[in-house]
């Protein structure tokens, strides 16, 4: 397995994402991508903005901009913030790209050819005043379930019940407020997921190594109630991929677009094609990742996402791929996440509740957030961000353990020896024991990273940092120096090599700090094979510099100020 294809669920375009979105998809995907690159594997790491659908249209209308312009701008905003968090996408694409139009139309055409598309006549609400159909959020009214008056055509925000536009009582247009509505017959395309139910079920059954969160959601959708349902793949909207059968027009589908859920996952493929085009490469550039007849057989494909995206990735997208009856790559592993909550409630983009990615970067560098979020990733259950917990973690793990180690060792060496790895002395029992301990820990760390056990990997990495501190504490080179400077030199030599090892091992979690350490140690970043050997990389005489304070502690006043600043909602 030397090639790894990694995709993160694509963030929706309607606004800046919050820390929950980040830790539920993009950030752990980045951790895994970086780790695989460290291990010398060829990685293709793809993300994109998810740009179609009614929320995008409505957000654009609210911003007073044409939807295409709004999406282009918001894409840039999200891309810039992603760079700020050091998300190392090979491409951050756009689901509105021409490449995605073409691929989405291609898949729809193949599905139709193979009998997996059904045309269904439906009753839809038409607004005479607006001269258009009103899908999803374009229609509002009273919830038939709880009576809430602001319910939308797709869901009641008050009681969370999923709704159809025709369910609403006293409906009105969300665009004009008009109640001059009528129900009209219109045709839509459905993906016959039910026809692929057994195949999907058997496929999921093979995935015994997948997280239970992933398979249990898939099984629920496959078997609950009447089992897996067919799903509409078209919408009466202007903004989206026009419904076509491959390159051909689709009679009866004029003026309709594909439903956003259908084109969004296809964008993983399209974003890779976008990259090929950007680089001026031919189709073989991206097909070797996606077509098993074009070399993708030896690719391991891993997807990252929050739990609400699991049904689409375990069932709908595989149904699209399988139904095409073409040799496209199916996902090999789906890493899913529970939810991160914010200070006693939920993160919410629509309500503006929580800390958003731009805000986070405005108060602290990326590494602080990356470390906290990954070490508290909502893997086995939902987890919660609190400012107290964030402060404690940053101060203890990053400042007291890692930062302090680096600062003590480099400053001590500079003052007692020089800014170069000191010569003399030799390793004894304490060093042998440390190396044995670190060997166990490094191999465990690798195991957790391979398995995408994010929290366990963070724990282990922290343990590796702690081991260095304990070594320093027990051997006390500052005391040794007074009686046996040679021995102290050996201890510091080992400790400087440990800093180098920390730079290498920590790179997937905290890439900026890792680079600072690497630059200070003026060294390569080879992943440790034999740990004893790795700790012998920096030889006596190798010059280094004392890095600037690696991590600043968060003071109580800062924490209180942020707590207050982010307690309300953003508009
Ligand atoms: N609180 C959360 N914790 C972890 N992951 C989350 C959380 N909320 C959303 N996600 C995940 O973030 C990714 C991007 O989501 P997307 O941009 O579609 O926003 P969303 O699911 O509509 O959330 P919101 O409505 O809060 O913006 C998805 O994989 C989704 O499952
Ligand atoms: Zn309701």
TrEMBL record:
The keyword Phosphoprotein does not apply. Is required not only for elongation of protein synthesis but also for the initiation of all mRNA translation through initiator tRNA(fMet) aminoacylation. A motif ('KMSKS' region) lies at residues 346-350. This is Methionine--tRNA ligase. NCBIfam families: metG (TIGR00398). The lineage of its organism: Bacteria, Pseudomonadati, Pseudomonadota, Alphaproteobacteria, Rhodobacterales. ATP binds at residue 349. Keywords: Aminoacyl-tRNA synthetase, ATP-binding, Cytoplasm, Ligase, Metal-binding, Nucleotide-binding, Protein biosynthesis, Zinc. Monomer. Its main location: cytoplasm. It catalyses: tRNA(Met) + L-methionine + ATP = L-methionyl-tRNA(Met) + AMP + diphosphate. Its EC number is 6.1.1.10. It comes from the Bacteria. The gene is metG. Belongs to the class-I aminoacyl-tRNA synthetase family. MetG type 1 subfamily. It is found in: Cytoplasm.
């Amino acid at each position: 397995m030397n090639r790894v294809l990694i995709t993160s669920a694509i963030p929706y375009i309607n606004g800046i994402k919050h820390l929950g979105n980040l830790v539920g998809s993009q950030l752990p995907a980045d951790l895994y991508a970086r780790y695989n690159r460290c291990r010398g594997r060829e990685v293709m790491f793809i993300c994109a903005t998810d740009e179609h659908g009614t929320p995008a249209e409505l957000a654009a209308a609210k911003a007073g901009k044409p939807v295409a312009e709004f999406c282009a701008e918001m894409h840039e905003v999200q891309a810039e913030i992603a760079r700020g968090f050091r998300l190392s996408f090979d491409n951050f694409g756009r689901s509105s790209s021409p490449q995605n139009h073409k691929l989405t139309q291609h898949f729809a055409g193949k599905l139709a050819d193979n009998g997996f598309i059904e045309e269904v006549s439906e009753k839809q609400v038409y607004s005479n005043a607006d001269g258009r159909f009103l899908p999803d959020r374009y229609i509002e009214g009273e919830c038939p379930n709880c009576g809430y008056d602001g319910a939308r055509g797709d869901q009641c925000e008050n009681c969370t019940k999923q709704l159809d536009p025709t369910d609403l009582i006293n409906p009105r247009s969300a665009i004009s407020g008009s109640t001059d509505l009528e129900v009209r017959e219109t045709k839509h395309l459905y993906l016959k997921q039910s026809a692929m139910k057994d195949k999907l079920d058997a496929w999921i059954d093979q995935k015994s190594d997948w997280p239970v969160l992933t398979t249990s959601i898939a099984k629920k959708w496959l078997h609950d109630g009447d089992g897996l349902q067919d799903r509409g793949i078209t919408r009466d909207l202007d903004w989206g991929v026009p419904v076509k059968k491959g390159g051909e027009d689709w009679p009866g589908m004029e003026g309709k677009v594909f439903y956003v859920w259908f084109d969004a996952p296809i964008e993983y493929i399209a974003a890779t094609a976008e990259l090929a085009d950007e680089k001026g490469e031919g189709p073989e550039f991206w097909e070797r990742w996606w077509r098993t007849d074009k070399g993708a057989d030896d690719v391991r494909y891993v997807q990252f996402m929050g739990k609400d995206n699991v049904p689409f990735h375990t069932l709908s997208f595989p149904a699209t791929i399988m139904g095409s009856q073409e040799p496209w790559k199916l996902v090999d592993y789906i890493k899913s996440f529970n939810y991160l909550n914010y200070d006693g409630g939920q993160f919410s983009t629509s309500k503006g509740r929580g800390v958003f990615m731009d805000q986070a970067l405005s108060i602290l560098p990326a590494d602080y957030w990356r470390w906290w979020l990954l070490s508290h990733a909502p893997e086995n259950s939902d987890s919660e961000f609190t400012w107290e917990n964030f402060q404690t973690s940053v101060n203890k793990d990053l400042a007291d353990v890692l930062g302090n180690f680096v600062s003590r060792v480099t400053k001590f060496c500079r003052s007692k020896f020089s800014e170069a790895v000191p010569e003399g002395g030799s390793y004894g029992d304490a060093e042998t024991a440390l190396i044995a301990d670190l060997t166990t820990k490094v191999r465990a760390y690798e195991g957790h990273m391979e398995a995408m056990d994010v929290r366990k990997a963070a724990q282990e990495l922290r343990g590796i940092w702690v081991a260095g501190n304990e070594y320093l504490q027990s051997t006390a080179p500052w005391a040794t120096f007074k009686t046996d400077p040679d021995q102290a030199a050996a201890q510091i030599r080992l400790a400087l090599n440990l800093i180098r090892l920390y730079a290498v091992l920590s790179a997937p979690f905290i890439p900026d700090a890792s680079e600072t350490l690497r630059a200070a140690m003026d060294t390569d970043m080879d992943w440790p094979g034999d740990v004893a050997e790795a700790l012998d990389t920096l030889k006596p005489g190798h010059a280094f510099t004392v890095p600037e304070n690696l991590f600043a502690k968060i003071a109580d006043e800062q924490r209180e100020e942020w707590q207050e600043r982010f307690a309300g909602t953003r508009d």
